[in-house]
Design a protein that fits this description.
- Among the domains are: 8-177, no CATH class; 181-338, no CATH class.
- The longest helix is centred in the middle third of the chain and has 30 residues, at 311-340.
- The strands form four sheets. Strands 2, 6, 7, 8, 9 and 10 form a six-stranded antiparallel beta sheet that branches.
- The protein is an alpha+beta fold.
- Helices cover 45% and strands 13% of the residues.
- A hairpin with a 5-residue loop joins β6 (90-97) and β7 (103-109).
- It has helices spanning 8-12, 35-41, 50-58, 126-141, 180-188, 192-206, 216-238, 288-303, 311-340, 350-368, 373-384, 389-392, 398-415, 419-427, 437-450, 454-463, 482-486, and strands at residues 17-19, 29-33, 69-71, 75-77, 80-82, 90-97, 103-109, 124-125, 148-160, 164-174, 240-241, 263-264.
């Protein structure tokens, strides 16, 4: 099988990777394959048997044209800097140009030890691999930039964590695997020439309009800020909690990457933390915009040698971008929030300020009464059609809701849009179904403990149509019992 690889990273930045081969596994078996994504990438696997496909995506067979390497990067992990992290259980196979002319990375995750493994086994287990597959496809269906899974393969060998688990390998596709930590790795070594080459590589890959400009490196920082502001705003508007926003998990492309201890809100609370390793709540739901800015500041520090000639001027340029981030984020977040409130996008001014207060008061209501985040937004669309009962049923203090709804109704009336059209617009941005944490766990448990992939496939099919209110799948839209959510914890298992 020829993937038509064109491996620009391996050619341009050999210092930032170590050529390496995936470890062979004893009994590869295909668990899931993303036919839509394969077609998007222009891959034709029809000539390969199921056994050959499994061997390919397990790493037993390296495709022609691949230049597998473990990428080097650094990172702040929970605020502490590690000058060398790197791909300890992943390999970049290479790059392809898809049917739309976009360059995409294809990488293996869980493919064995590398020089960056730091004592780890380099392996992954079936549960975390299928979690990443589910989450990536759910985010894709929600229109949120994300890495995606091309394939998940069982390896037929055990991996050892808190318990013995069946092993697996994920094939991941990304716009690139360049991270904030990639720049930190080079900056920590004081190699200005390599830093310039890395930055120019990133610009050519993600911001070609900046190529050749004198201010291109400042432009790169601004572009990353814009992409991350838009991305985190989308997370916040669907209740997604990344769980481990270390700088090595923040992409230059603006894609969501590394679905480890991620989860979705149920009852709305900005302090929500599900990650078992986030004991201090650093990466709580409501902290995500602050952490995105903090991570961006670390990127700015790494880029300082490439900005204005004088150190003081470089710091001033970088500081201006970092200080602008909250306003940038707020614009994206409020725009998404207004759409979910059924309000047309408006020019800056008094009406928009009133919309922000409406949004803040709505979230305060949800928090005070512990209302399910996703169901509340969806039921608000029913209220726009003149059917407030489903929404009122979610609240204990209905008087407080009614008072707020009256304010919103006045705002709706000022726009004069038909209620049915407004409700349809709201449903087009407010999902009916998300990856409910208990449903994800049930599907993964069936796959891991019983070898039963049917629950995983059913859940995947539902998550790929998140806006469709289908009574046949109503159970997937229901929140978990409160006692289950209260004790729910996620882990970094991949």
């Amino acid at each position: 099988m020829n993937f038509a690889f064109d491996n620009s990273y391996a050619r341009a930045l050999p210092e930032l990777g170590v050529p390496w081969r995936p470890a062979a596994v004893p009994a590869p078996r295909l668990l899931a394959f993303n036919h839509e994504l394969a077609d998007e990438l222009g891959l034709d696997l029809a000539s390969l048997s199921a056994e050959d496909q499994a061997a390919l995506f397990a790493g037993n067979q390296v495709p022609e044209g691949a230049s597998p390497l473990a990428q080097a990067y650094a990172g702040h992990q929970f605020g502490g800097f590690s000058p060398q992290l790197g791909d300890g259980r992943a390999l970049l196979l290479g790059e392809v140009v898809d049917r739309d002319g976009r360059r995409r990375d294809i990488a293996l995750k869980g493919s064995g030890r590398t020089p960056f493994s730091r004592g780890g086994d380099g392996k992954a287990a079936v549960g975390p691999v299928l979690r990443e597959y589910l989450m990536g496809e759910a985010m894709q269906a929600l229109g949120i930039p994300t890495t995606r899974a091309l394939a998940a393969v069982a390896t037929g060998e055990p991996v050892y964590r808190e318990e013995v688990l069946p092993g697996a390998v994920l094939t991941r596709v990304a716009a690139s695997h360049l991270r904030v930590g990639s720049f930190q790795f080079v900056a920590a070594r004081g190699d200005a020439a390599l830093l310039g080459r890395l930055a120019d590589f990133a610009i050519a890959r993600h911001d070609p309009g900046l190529v050749g400009r004198a201010d291109r490196h400042l432009g790169l920082l601004r572009a990353v800020a814009e992409r991350q502001a838009a991305l985190v705003a989308q997370w916040m508007n669907v209740g997604f909690i990344h769980g481990v926003m270390n700088t090595d998990n923040m992409t230059i492309s603006g894609e969501t990457i590394d679905y480890g201890p991620c989860a979705f809100l149920e009852a709305y609370d900005p302090a929500t933390v599900f990650s078992s390793i986030d004991r201090g709540g650093r990466y709580a739901f409501g902290n995500q915009p602050l952490i995105a800015r903090w991570n961006l500041a670390r990127l700015a520090e790494a880029l300082l040698p490439l900005l204005a000639g004088e150190a003081e001027a470089a710091v001033a340029q970088a500081t201006e971008v970092i200080d602008a981030f909250p306003t940038l984020f707020d614009g994206h977040w409020r725009r998404g929030q207004r759409a979910k409130l059924g309000l047309a996008d408006v020019k800056p001014g008094d009406v928009q300020a009133g919309d922000a207060q409406l949004g803040d008061d709505w979230l305060a209501l949800l928090q005070a009464q512990q209302v399910d985040f996703t169901l509340a937004w969806r039921a608000l669309a029913d209220a726009a059609e003149g059917r407030p009962a489903p929404l009122r049923d979610l609240f204990v203090d209905r008087a407080a809701l009614d008072a707020w709804l009256q304010r919103l109704a006045q705002r709706w009336a000022a726009e004069g849009r038909d209620g049915a059209a407004r409700a349809a617009a709201m449903r087009s941005v407010g999902p009916w179904v998300i990856p409910r944490n208990h449903r994800v766990e049930q599907a993964l448990a069936a796959a891991v403990k019983d070898g039963d992939l049917a629950p995983f496939q059913r859940l995947l099919a539902v998550l790929q149509r998140p806006l469709v209110d289908d009574p046949r799948f109503a159970a997937y839209a229901e929140p978990a019992p409160r006692e289950l959510t209260a004790g729910y914890r996620t882990f970094c298992g991949t």
